[in-house]
Design goal:
This protein is of the alpha+beta class. About 40% of the residues lie in helices and about 30% in strands. It contains 5 helices and 7 strands, in the order αβααββββαββα. The chain has a 7-stranded antiparallel β-sheet.
Amino acid sequence: MTLPWQFGLVRVCVRKFRKKHMRPPFRSKQEVIINAPVETVWEFSMDITKIPTFHPRVVKVELLSGKFLREPGVSYRCHLSGGKHTCVEKDIEIVPMQKVVTILPEDTFGISKVLPDYVVETTLHRVGQSSTKIEISHYYSTPTLKAKLLNLIARRKIARETQDTLNGMKAAIEERGATIKNG
């Protein structure tokens, strides 16, 4: 026989297990096809100092870990256009030529306080011999009313700005490839 208090204990254990072992709920995904091999796209995206060359809102990147290439544990601060806001991003998982998982531990907007489990997963997929599909997926929980309202208000803006970033990356990589070919 199960006692009523045991149900509460099971719920707490399940929540703790999910928090430790599972990704927060999926929120959105944006993608683009880049006319370059996956190796070229991977090499470009691993260099943190290149972020301002393709991200429409980032004007400067500060290497907090002192490393310019992505690896688990590397943190960097993005300075956003307008000069008032920054965000710190930290790469927590990297699968070469396939995936980068990044978290947002701190920012001046307050997003990291409202959505403390915000996770961004960037994946690369080979498309034929000379193209790559890159996808950026967003995951976060909305346990509070403030988080639910932020999600309602910001979800479309996050998706639009992520698509703009992917389009910027596509343009930068394809332009770089054309420059090398025409060299």
